[in-house]
Amino acid sequence: MRRLLLLTLLLASFLLPACSTPTPQPEPTPTKAPTSTPIPATSTPKPTPHPDLGISTQALRGVTVTVWHGWDGKSASLFGQMAAEFSMENKWGVKVDVVSQKNLSLLAQAVDSALKTPEHPDLVVALPEHASPGMPRVW
User: Fold this and answer.
1) Does the residue 137 lie in any domain?
2) Around Cβ 73, how many Cβ atoms within 10 Å?
3) What is the Cα–Cα distance from 34 to 32, expressed in whole angstroms?
């Protein structure tokens, strides 16, 4: 008898909720998509003035600056492109010759070797920890 009563209560607890009417769920309120406000046009941009280097343009015409760096891939390509643009567009006529040493370790080795010869770069782009202890300081 007890088992029958327990089984009936258990069965009723599963079946009775299925007979009730569902509680209506509130409809989601549609939200308005954000609209972008156009940025008003400003005046025509002005080119950045070239700084006065304290030397005549004629004295710099034809000067080539050799730059070594330790990048490869996209970084090297982008740097080379910027140097080429500078070489073509600067008012002084300065040319930049970019040489990639492929990585910073090879760059450090190349700089160490080149400092002993007259064929060293004019500028090296490297991290401070790659500076050679024997490298002359200009600052």
Assistant:
1) no
2) 9
3) 6
